[in-house]
Each structure stands twice: as C-alpha cells, then as structure tokens.
Amino acid sequence: MCETGGHNCKNKLNYPERRWIQFLILRVVCQEPLHGYGIVKAIEELSEGRHIIKSGTMYTTLRRMEKEGLLESFWERSDTGPDKRMYKVTRDGRKHLKEWLEMLMERKRMMEKILLFYEQEFRGDNREDI
C-alpha cells in the first residue's frame, strides 16, 4: 500500500501527497518540538485517523525537510529510555507554514461559496435523475 499517492497506489485519495505530509509535519511541530513517533501520532490525531504515516516515509521526509531548511533537529537526553531526536520548525519553516495556511484560508472561502451552491441546489434533493 502506498503512503504518498504515487503512481503505483491503488487508493490514491486516502494518502496525502508529499507536500501535504510536509504541511502536516510543520503544523504539528510548530506547536512544540516532537520526535518522529510523536509527529506520527500528532498527525494521526489531527487528521482524525485519516493520515497514518509509516516511519520510513516519516524519517525520509524529516531528513528532506531538514535539508530544505524547514526543520532542525536536536537530541533530547533521557534517563529512562533511549535519547530522542527532536524536530522543531525553523524561521523558514514558519514562513512556509504561514504561506500554506494563507492559501488554505483563500481556498476555504472559495469552498464555502461552492458548498453554499450545493446547499441551495441539491440539499434534501432525493431525486435519482440528478
């Protein structure tokens, strides 16, 4: 089963594209630094279980985002278990996230207009000849 909606994916609509995964990572890490597993769980919770990202995809994406300057990592020491590599958003990452969020706000306004049309034209319409 694919994770990023590639050409070999049978059910493309259930998996986010690479940039969407990056957006979700920035969104959850912007609140607080997290380790890879924490990011996976936060995205799963944020998306209400719609996006479950496998660890291989997650760590590849995190490394790519570090190279792009969107994230930076540091080691958090632990007395009770293994040390954890934590990820936090950089200044460029915050700027990138803000731009994405602004685009989503514009699309939200457009979607509200489209959904209003639906409400006016089709809501409660049970005809089968539509």
TrEMBL record:
**Limits of the Transcription regulator PadR N-terminal domain:** 25-99
Extract the Pfam families matched here: PadR (PF03551)
| InterPro entries xrefs | Metal_resp_DNA-bind_regulator, Tscrpt_reg_PadR_N, WH-like_DNA-bd_sf, WH_DNA-bd_sf
What SUPFAM superfamilies does the record point to?
Winged helix' DNA-binding domain (SSF46785)
What is the name of the protein in this document?
A: Transcriptional regulator, PadR-like family
